[in-house]
Specification:
This protein has 5 helices and 2 strands, in the order αβαβααα. It is globular and about 80 Å long.
Amino acid sequence: MTQMPANPFQSLVIVAWRRADFLVHEIARALGLGLTPCRPFLLRPVRARLAADLARFEALVRRLLVLMVLEQALPAFTPRAPAMGAPAGKGRPPAPRRYLAVPAFRLADPAPRTVSTPPPRRPAGGLRPRILRLDQPLPPPDPWEYAPRADQLVPSQPLVRRLAALCAVFDDPAHHLTRMARFLARTRATPSAPRYRLAPLPPAARARRVPQDEREAMRQVHTEACAQLARFDTS
């Protein structure tokens, strides 16, 4: 029988991690992802649901990694020495591309999108005439003139690769804890490097379709992770 920690917040972290592990792998199983995470197209509603779930679970996992890493002392950061025989001013040669490799999980929250003025809407039909001759039918509409439908297939491979990277975090948590520890140690040891910051929770984490207890747990995890990072920066 597994003994739970006496600290209630540590219990919350463990339960949140296990619950996210189960739900993320359930999403992967529902999409039928195998050894090669390849689903170039998904139905429009399925893609929208996947994008919202990824935004929610990625934000949760980043905050859980921060909390688990900051429980212990960070490793000493030592800059990597340049490779012997490498030309001055040039880095390492690019590694060969691996087409079936799982992408790395992104440790930092994505930068917020800047608000910009949307481009003017293209008028229906563009510049071509809508009536060529009075005695002939109208030409067929262009693709952008069709209204979006739920049964349409839309490109989704970038989201599927993000899902594969998220599953890899739960499959090998020790590796990603080491990555996060090195990342925080590097930002602390390099004065010119920007400090690690957590963005506000995405709207998907506060949506009504998310259970109330999960929203509250997400809020507590986010608040504690931000507080731990603030103490980490001033220590």
